[in-house]
Design a protein that fits this description.
Blueprint: H1 3-16, E1 43-45, E2 57-62, H2 67-81, E3 85-92, H3 103-120, E4 125-131, H4 141-155, E5 159-163, H5 173-188, H6 197-200, E6 210-214, E7 223-225, H7 231-238, H8 250-260, H9 272-284
Parallel strand pairs: 1-7, 2-3, 2-5, 3-4, 5-6
Helix pairs in contact: 2-7, 3-7, 4-5, 8-9
Length: about 290
């Protein structure tokens, strides 16, 4: 009998005779300087009274203009309400997503949308690094990292909000490259040995201490942020992305399309403003409900 058939037969026989299967309490983990377990404790982060984070700074970093509003808009509003100063950093030039007659027109409109998103999210400033959309994997990650380290130091960033660099099944190269650049810049910015020329200009080593990661696909979750008090403001921010993104004016367009067919969806109300707001809240941002 072949070896593999022998083991297969033995296992089948054991199961048929009622031999209990071995119980695994959790995923196996490798050795090294740290441990890995998928059974992570879950923390529910709720709104805090007052300004417990006064004096702190966060950088909300997105490859495209609709990423932070969709996945972390409520978090941004919550942290600023609790005392943070926020900066919105967009990595790509957003030239390949949205409506417009030319690439340049799309870039301009997405940039204008992003300024308005930043204003509605109450960020202090919107910053653009202008890497080529959908092609950030062709750019040296060390350059992206260097620019982020400079920003972390000059803005004195304590916390970053960005895509999860370890998330599964992420197909957009801008998402993965941007997240990896942030993750590596995260700790290097605190080192006195990385980019010491910054110190000649008066900067000092300074890097973030905390990070909030979000993802489009499967993700190990150890923190859930309650944004119930900020949901309407998050919807308002997403409505500013009219060139691309799932919110914008899509509610009004759906309402008009249904009307042309003699149909009506009560949720969309009787005017375009209501249609856009409810479409964004109940469809575009349904994952937050």
């Amino acid at each position: 009998m072949e070896r593999r058939n022998f083991f297969g037969s033995s296992l089948s026989a054991g199961l048929m005779q009622g031999t209990p299967e071995p119980q695994i309490d959790r995923e196996y983990q490798a050795g090294g300087t740290g441990g890995v377990s998928y059974q992570t404790p879950l923390i529910i982060e709720r709104k805090q009274a007052g300004k417990p984070h006064a004096g702190k700074v966060f950088a909300a970093i997105q490859p495209h203009c609709d990423d932070i509003p969709i996945f972390a808009g409520g978090l941004v509003l919550k942290l600023i309400d609790e005392g943070y100063t926020g900066y919105l950093i967009t990595l790509s030039n957003d030239s390949l997503a949205g409506t417009g007659p030319t690439f340049g027109d799309i870039v301009l409109k997405n940039e204008q949308d992003t300024f308005e998103v930043g204003r509605r999210l109450k960020c202090k400033e919107s910053i653009f690094l202008n890497y080529p959309n959908h092609n950030m994997d062709a750019w040296p990650i060390v350059e992206i990292r260097a620019r982020l380290i400079f920003l972390f130091r000059v803005l004195r960033v304590d916390t970053v909000i960005v895509y999860d660099p370890s998330s599964l099944y992420e197909r957009n190269p801008d998402h993965t490259v941007g997240a990896r650049a942030v993750e590596t810049a995260f700790w290097m910015a605190s080192s006195p040995w990385d980019y010491p020329e910054h110190f000649r200009a008066g900067l000092t080593p300074h890097g973030p201490k905390d990070a909030y990661y979000f993802a489009r696909g499967p993700q190990i979750v150890n923190r859930v942020v309650d944004i119930g008090d900020y949901m309407d403001a998050k919807v308002h921010a997403n409505l500013a992305n009219v060139t691309q993104g799932p919110a914008g004016k899509n509610g009004a367009m759906l309402k008009a399309r249904l009307a042309s067919q003699g149909k009506r969806l009560p949720l969309l109300g009787n005017d375009d403003e209501t249609a856009n707001r409810n479409y964004a809240k109940y469809f575009a941002l349904s994952r937050d409900r």
